[in-house]
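Page 37, continued from 36.
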């Protein structure tokens, strides 16, 4: 694994975090992560070196922590989610993060703890996928109503469909966050994780089956939400790229570090201007 490729992975991940997520992280009690908000590429690279993210385990822990911050921050912003439900799945993601860090610190129990962490995240993924399909089902039932029935209940039906579509968008974002977490955790195991990618593709096909995306977009209340559904296939492809990048960075017999802690021999210009 080359120095530039590894540091590019970390920089791309940090710079790809949405502004809305940074806002929530800035308001949380995690100044070490919040300091990255709005920083330049050079400052991000300096941060990576300062906190020794040049070491594979450190980089993996950092990304997992940031993914969990993203996931829990999204939960706090989703008023559609009931509090008890919210707390249950937040706790599962946080538990997965704790198990992941414990695994890296305890080599003898590493594989067992990584497997437990992976199962926690997979539980979340199943729930999120089923929730998305339920939102789609609710809209399709209304869309399939007779013209006369839809007309009589049009105002209430439209409001319900708009809410269901917005809830589904929220849950898709949670699903993608959970998949990124699963990819990083799984890439640190010695297992063949190709089955995870197969499951990822199956979930994509199920959620995007037929005219699901066009149906959901038809009942959105603004153009931003419509564009989300129109571009959902690209979002899945982006997450698939993240899978392959994770495997490339973490899924190998790791040396003590990707490179020495000194940054003098890293081609900063090559990294900064990609």
């Amino acid at each position: 694994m080359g120095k530039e490729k590894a540091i590019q992975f970390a920089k791309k991940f940090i710079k790809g975090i949405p502004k809305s997520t940074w806002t929530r992280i800035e308001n949380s009690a995690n100044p070490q992560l919040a300091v990255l908000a709005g920083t330049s590429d050079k400052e991000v690279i300096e941060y990576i070196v300062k906190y020794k993210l040049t070491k594979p385990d450190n980089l993996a822990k950092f990304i997992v922590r940031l993914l969990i911050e993203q996931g829990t921050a999204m939960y706090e912003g989703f008023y559609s989610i009931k509090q008890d439900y919210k707390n249950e799945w937040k706790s599962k993601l946080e538990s997965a993060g704790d198990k992941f860090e414990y695994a890296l610190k305890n080599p003898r129990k590493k594989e067992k703890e990584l497997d437990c962490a992976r199962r926690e995240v997979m539980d979340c993924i199943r729930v999120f996928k089923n929730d998305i399909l339920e939102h789609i089902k609710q809209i399709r039932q209304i869309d399939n109503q007779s013209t006369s029935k839809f007309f009589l209940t049009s105002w209430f039906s439209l409001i319900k469909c708009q809410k269901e579509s917005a809830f589904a968008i929220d849950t898709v974002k949670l699903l993608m966050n959970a998949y990124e977490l699963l990819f990083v955790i799984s890439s640190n195991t010695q297992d063949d994780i190709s089955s995870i990618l197969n499951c990822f593709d199956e979930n994509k096909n199920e959620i995007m089956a037929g005219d699901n995306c066009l149906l959901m977009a038809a009942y959105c209340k603004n153009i931003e939400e419509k564009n989300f559904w129109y571009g959902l296939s690209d979002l899945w492809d982006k997450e698939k790229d993240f899978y392959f990048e994770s495997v490339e960075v973490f899924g190998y017999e790791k040396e003590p570090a990707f490179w020495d802690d000194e940054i003098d021999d890293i081609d900063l210009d090559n990294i900064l201007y990609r």
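The chain is about 75% helix and 0% strand. Flag for discussion at group meeting. The mean pLDDT is 78.
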